[in-house]
Amino acid sequence: MNAAPLLEARGLVIRRGTRVTLDTLDLRVCAGSVYALLGGNGAGKTTTLNALLGFVPAAAGQALVDGIDATLDPQAARARLAYLPENVALYSYLTGIENLQYFCALSGLRITSGEAGALLESAGLAFEAHARRVGGYSKGMRQKVGLAIAKARRARAMLLDEPTSGLDPAAANEFARSVLAARDAGMAILMATHDLFNALQVADRIGILREGRLVAELDARDVAHEELERIYLRHASDAEETAS
Fold first, then answer.
1. Which pLDDT score, from 0 to 100, does residue 2 have?
2. Residue 82 · residue 158 · CB < 8 Å
3. Are the C-beta atoms of residues 65 and 140 closer than 8 Å to each other?
4. Does residue 60 sit in the same domain as residue 170?
5. Please, which pLDDT band fits residue 244 given cuts at 50, 70 and 90?
6. Which of 136, 154, 172 is the last residue of a domain?
7. Same structural domain for residues 6 and 67?
8. Are residues 134 and 96 in contact, defined by beta-carbon separation less than 8 angstroms?
9. Which end of the chain has the lower number of beta carbons within 10 A, N or C?
10. What is the pLDDT of residues 37-93, one digit of tens each?
11. Cβ(7)–Cβ(190) below 8 Å
12. How far is Cα 58 from Cα 106, in angstroms, rounded to an integer?
């Protein structure tokens, strides 16, 4: 018997005015798995994340987080989620430890500096950076603080929006290891990305969105980079021909 998904779009339709931005989307992400959602700009990747966060209401269907309808009860849905945007917003004048303690406090969690340090270390942030002000952090280091915040909140599921955008190869590889560690700890992870290599590196399932529709879904173990690139470019080309 298959496990119930922690993240699910079920016949999900999102409209902005007269425009359909998600068209009858169906996808499932279970505990201990990573789903990479690929697509060009405007394909609907970020809209999918925003629907699960309850920021945009469903016109039809459901966006479900651990069985909770994010349109009907967005606060309860968000309470079960960790969200890592493309650019993690942290307080530049606070240290890594202080940022982590502050954001935990906003969620009603009190952690010691020692506990904060252990969480930052588990997210891959070097010890010598813990007590430095975040204003001097690279983007990759900020992403690690974001992952530490997600771990501290003990969220069951995590949404990642273009997490490797702007990272150098070494930082992207480190981030991939952190995502895999979160997956192995039982978290369900949905990642919106343009990065085909990163998708293959961390994902169990890969979906390709085009104009709000899921046009392909693949098992990452069964596809090589060249084949994924070919499939992705074919759908991108189809979208351009349709637009013209």
1. 60
2. yes
3. no
4. yes
5. very low
6. 154
7. yes
8. yes
9. N
10. 999 888 999 999 999 999 999 999 999 999 999 999 999 999 889 898 888 889 999
11. yes
12. 28
Tally the C-alpha atoms within 13 A of residue 241's C-alpha that lie toward its C-beta.
Answer: 6
Q: Please report, to the nearest 10 degrees, the dihedral formed by the alpha carbons of residues 129, 195, 51, 150 taken in order.
A: -20
Residues 67 and 122 in one domain: no
User: How many residues can be counted in the chain?
Assistant: 244
Residue 146, token pair as written in the block:
């974001």
Pair (98, 76) in one structural domain? no
Which H or E run contains 25? strand 19-29
From 133, 154, 175, the end of a domain falls on 154
Residue 227 phi, psi (nearest 5): -70, -40
Which two tokens mark 226?
């060249």
Dist. CA 160–CA 137, nearest whole Å: 20
pLDDT at 243: 46
What residues make up the domain containing 143?
A: 84-154
Structure token pair of residue 3:
């496990």
Q: Which residues is 81 bridged to in the sheet?
A: 157
pLDDT digits (tens, 9 = 90+) for 193-221: 988 988 999 999 999 999 999 999 999 99
Question: Quick check: 97 pLDDT over 80?
Answer: yes
Whose structure tokens read 């349709």? 242
Residues 109 and 145 in one domain: yes
Amino acid at 66: D
Tell me the two tokens of residue 120: 């930052």
Report the candidate in 72, 77, 78, 99 with the shortest Cα–Cα distance to residue 88: 99
Sequence-separated (6 or more) residues with CB below 8 Å from residue 70: 51, 52, 53, 54, 58, 63, 64, 77, 78
CA of 136: how far to CAs of 93, 142, 197, in Å?
A: 9, 10, 28
The pTM assigned to this predicted structure is 0.88
